[in-house]
Design brief:
The complex is a heterodimer of chains A (580) and B (268).
Chain A (H helix, E strand, L loop, with lengths): L4 E12 L2 E13 L4 E5 L6 H8 L8 E8 L2 E2 L5 H4 L4 E4 L3 H4 L6 H13 L3 H14 L5 H4 L9 H13 L5 E5 L7 H18 L2 E6 L2 H4 L5 E6 L2 E7 H6 L4 H14 L41 E2 L4 E2 L17 H5 L3 E12 L2 E12 L3 E5 L6 H8 L6 E6 L2 E2 L5 H9 L1 E4 L13 H11 L4 H14 L16 H14 L4 E5 L7 H18 L2 E6 L2 H7 L2 E6 L2 E7 H6 L4 H9 L6
Parallel strand pairs in A: 3-8, 3-9, 6-7, 7-8, 15-20, 15-21, 18-19, 19-20
Antiparallel strand pairs in A: 1-2, 1-4, 4-5, 9-10, 10-12, 11-12, 13-14, 13-16, 16-17, 21-22
Helix pairs in contact in A: 4-5, 5-7, 7-8, 15-16, 15-17, 16-17
Chain B lengths: L1 H27 L31 H36 L2 H16 L2 H11 L4 H12 L1 H15 L2 H8 L4 H37 L11 H10 L6 H31 L1
Helix pairs in contact in B: 1-2, 1-10, 2-3, 2-5, 2-6, 2-8, 2-9, 2-10, 3-6, 4-5, 5-8, 6-8, 8-9, 8-10, 9-10
The chains are: A alpha/beta (580), B mainly alpha (268).
Chain lengths: 580, 268
């Protein structure tokens, strides 16, 4: 049987800082009709570039080599229009950006159908209705004349899927279709795609960073790391025992998430410009030997999947991080606060506070309002005068002046409670996020490209760049504040009640986002909140603050299970239970 | 909605018409305002002299246009000068260190306490009066109110989270002022700029009326009113009403435009 999609030796470069940088190298993949393949990797691994290459939707300046065949036909510039929609169609992460806000969904779906198939308006409308029913829009008949903004995020994604199905494609390419949706809705979208696959014999290329989403539905898994395939094979075998240390680490991270525990793989994904020679994962891998760094390992057939690794895992082996620098980093103190005291006028606000935050660690600060927790955050940010020592990476802030002080402050960024108040209402969103970049001297064009990446990282559409903060929701505004904080490439993120101005569903989304970002980037956080549920969701350790003093510190699980102080117990009991 | 925009549009239209008439008028209506026609002294409006003539037989319409030109040539730069000084002083006070703020604010209180028209008259009696000295005098005496307004706006914005966030990324005071403060207070500035224009026109007219403004042989709206007043017994309405209307119209235009901008901003 002809495979629906066959990719051979695909290499894609993108221009970065005036030079062509390889984003994806020597990529091979085959999908048979009706099969679902999950393409998995962290952001920056090259998985979206792989997906966009299929229908040649890459950004301008991209150079592409290798061969792609859709249903046996070689994909070339000529004839591309015929393949798009008819053989393969695409669903993106942000349906709001992909749908036309000024047209009803019936008009948009109908138009797509008439462009490809002709037919009358009435037929097009009937087709639109049938498709909306098929993708599970309730009361589809009454929703035909609604505009995209009248649908919820999950429903919009369903509408996008309906549009993708208009011409009866054989392949659906879904690029992070559930990112930005809350976990429950994400599962529903996954079930919808799985159902369509069965009923229409549709092949699916599912691009995601979240392994837990695909475990249930995918037939095959293909893992990318830093632009190279590291492991691929049947999903059953993959989930039973990943053979490449990186996939095992990813898989492990999922298991840990189930137990509500952050599992960062120590170290960071290398930038495309600075990929190490040999196996790209070697610097972070505990199994790596000297020969791993010589040449990219050839793929080998293990007793399960195929892994591009010289020392694939055996039996039930689990991943261990590289000994030395990255592992030690996790425990090296990043921020040290010693005997910090602070007063407003004569009134003492903080007395003798001492704490540390390790590299990649999230420390929660919990306390009632008036306990001094926000002032502690501001003192660490150097926004308030204090007595005592605050040191970042061993450098005492008190000893710094002028440019050195500014550079040190940049390393600590902040997300405030009220997203409306923390974004200048008269600056465009693009300018707001670019601010730290421009202040660091980055050129306008380069900053704009970076802003686009940052928006993507926080699950927002680049289309927001030209808009003012007043035109976005509270949840979106808080994401923009996070993107701005990340733009400065901080070592430490101070989150001062980041979710308390948001409604419950946005809270959950934002917490998930923060957890993902912290994990992906190995960020350290200082999370300030009155809400134990929020703090325990993100923090490795928790410090309890009462009337300006730290009354209790401990590992999150220990503190939750057996709080020593009555005050802590009271706070724990006051917190709404967070369902996982 | 229409009422909100109506006031702004009416103000802009009226102001624009007066400015056009005064600045371009003398080039379009080319009668010499200073030519004396003794035989036609104190005539009412006619075809030859649409706004009549004064006691020296000078063309009333030509005088009105020339007076407008003289008034605006002094008032507009004076308003600009006052605007820049007020803005600069306000930003400096609002963003500067605490001690600087204290000193500059006390100094400002002194300025504000002085009745500006009296000070104006005092200085106008001391220095030779020409366009440059009038611009400087009017400009330097009209800025304190704006300076205080700007300072208070800056102080209100200074502690806001988005400014703290910018400082955390390494933004200096100049950057904060230019990017964040200026955009936040832009509406207030625009509104007050229109009021400043009205103020300086009024002050110059008052000075000229007292003989301390635009000096003879040149005329301004204020001095035209003054010379008409000398012969009020003869009731030359065509000499009194037009310059009076022009002054009134300018103030009304500035006020309407300003109010319109305030309402539009409030509606946002």
């Amino acid at each position: 049987m002809t495979p629906v999609l066959e990719i051979r030796g695909l290499t894609v470069t993108l221009p970065r800082a005036g030079r062509d940088v390889p984003i994806l190298e020597d990529f091979n993949l085959t999908i048979a009709p009706g099969r679902m393949l999950a393409l998995v990797g962290e952001s920056g691994a090259g998985k979206s570039v792989a997906a966009l290459s299929v229908l040649r939707l890459l950004p301008p300046g991209a150079k592409i080599s290798g061969e792609i065949r859709l249903d046996g036909t070689r994909v070339e510039k000529a004839g591309l229009q015929r393949l798009r929609g008819a053989v393969a169609s695409m669903v993106f992460q942000d349906p709001l950006a992909a749908l036309n806000p000024t047209q009803t969904v019936a008009a948009q779906i109908g138009e797509a159908w008439r462009v490809h198939k002709g037919g009358s308006k009435a037929e097009a409308r009937a087709k639109a209705l049938a498709l909306l029913e098929e993708v599970g829009i309730a009361d589809a008949a009454t929703r035909l004349d609604d505009y995209p903004h009248q649908f919820s995020g999950g429903q919009r994604q369903r509408v996008m899927i309906a549009m993708a199905l208009v011409c009866g494609p054989k392949l659906l390419i879904a690029d992070e279709p559930t990112t930005g949706l809350d976990p429950l809705v994400a599962q529903q979208i996954m079930s919808l795609i799985a159902g369509l696959r069965r009923s229409k014999n549709l092949a699916v290329l599912f691009v995601t960073h979240d392994l837990s989403l695909v475990a249930e539905h995918a037939d095959e898994v293909h893992v990318l790391y830093a632009g190279r395939s590291v492991e691929w094979g049947a999903a059953k075998e993959f989930f039973a025992q990943p053979r490449h240390p990186y996939s095992a680490a990813l898989r492990g991270a999922v298991a840990w998430l189930g137990q509500k525990k952050l599992a960062a793989i120590p170290g960071q994904l290398p930038e495309p410009e600075a990929r190490p020679p040999g196996c790209r994962f070697a610097p972070r891998c505990g199994f790596a030997q000297v020969d791993c760094t010589r040449a990219y390992p050839a793929p080998v057939q293990t007793d399960g999947t195929i892994a591009a690794c010289l020392y694939p895992l055996q039996g039930r082996q689990t991943f261990t991080p590289a000994a030395g620098a990255p592992a030690a980093q996790r425990f090296a103190p990043l921020l040290e606060v010693q005997n910090l005291s602070l007063r407003y006028g004569k009134k003492p606000v903080l007395a003798d506070v001492s704490l540390t935050v390790g590299q990649g660690e999230c420390l929660g600060i919990v306390g009632e309002s008036g306990s001094g927790k926000s002032s502690l955050g501001k003192a660490i940010l150097q926004m308030l005068p204090y007595a005592g020592r605050v040191a970042l990476e061993g450098q005492d802030f008190a000893a710094l002046r002028g440019a050195k002080m500014r550079a040190a402050r940049r390393r600590v960024q902040v997300v405030f409670q009220d997203p409306r108040e923390s974004l200048n209402p008269r600056l465009r969103i693009g300018e707001i996020i670019a601010e730290p970049l421009r202040l660091a001297g980055m050129k306008r064009g380069e900053a704009a490209a970076k802003v686009e990446t940052l928006l993507h990282d926080v699950g927002l559409s680049p289309a927001l760049m030209g808009r003012l903060p007043g035109s976005v929701s509270g949840g979106q505004a808080q994401r923009i504040a996070i993107a701005r904080a990340l733009a400065a490439e901080p070592a430490l993120l101070v989150l001062d009640e980041p979710t308390s101005a948001l409604d419950v569903s946005n809270q959950a989304l934002l917490l998930n986002l923060l957890r993902g970002l912290a994990q992906e980037r190995g960020l350290s956080c200082l999370l300030i909140s009155h809400d134990f549920a929020v703090v325990s969701f993100l923090s490795d350790r928790i410090a309890v603050l009462r009337k300006g003093r730290v009354v209790e510190t401990g590992e999150t699980s220990g503190l939750l299970a057996a709080p020593r102080e009555t005050y802590t117990r009271k706070l724990v009991e006051a917190a709404p239970r967070l369902q996982s | 909605m229409s009422e909100k925009r109506g006031s702004l549009l009416a103000g802009l239209a009226l102001g624009g018409a007066i400015a056009l008439l005064s600045l371009a008028g003398p080039f379009l209506y080319r009668a010499d305002p200073y030519a004396i026609h003794p035989a036609y002294a104190l005539r009412g409006p006619s075809l030859a002299f649409p706004l009549g003539t004064d006691e020296l037989g000078r063309n009333g319409l030509a005088l009105l246009l020339a007076g407008g030109q003289a008034t605006l040539i002094v008032s507009l730069p004076a308003a600009l000068l006052a605007f820049c000084s007020g803005l600069g002083y306000g930003l400096l006070t609002g963003l500067g260190a605490g001690w600087l703020d204290k000193i500059l604010m006390r100094l400002l209180d002194v300025f504000l306490a002085l009745p500006s028209l009296v000070v104006l008259i005092f200085f106008a009696a001391l220095v030779p009066l020409n366009n440059v000295s009038l611009v400087l005098l009017l400009g330097f005496l009209s800025w304190p109110a704006l300076a205080r307004l700007v300072r208070n706006e800056v102080v209100a914005q200074r502690g806001r989270d988005f400014i703290l966030a910018a400082e955390q990324s390494g933004a200096g005071r100049f950057y904060i002022a230019r990017v964040h403060i200026m955009r936040m207070i832009a509406p207030v500035l625009v509104v007050n700029a229109t009021f400043l224009v009205g103020d300086t026109i009024f002050s110059l007219s008052a000075l000229s009326f007292l003989g301390l403004g635009v000096q003879p042989p040149h005329v301004s709206w204020g001095s035209s009113l003054q010379s008409a007043l000398d012969i009020i017994a003869l009731a030359p309405w065509w000499l009194i009403i037009p310059p009076g209307l022009m002054i009134f119209g300018s103030l009304l235009a500035a006020s309407l435009a300003g109010q319109g901008l305030v309402r539009r901003e409030g509606a946002r």
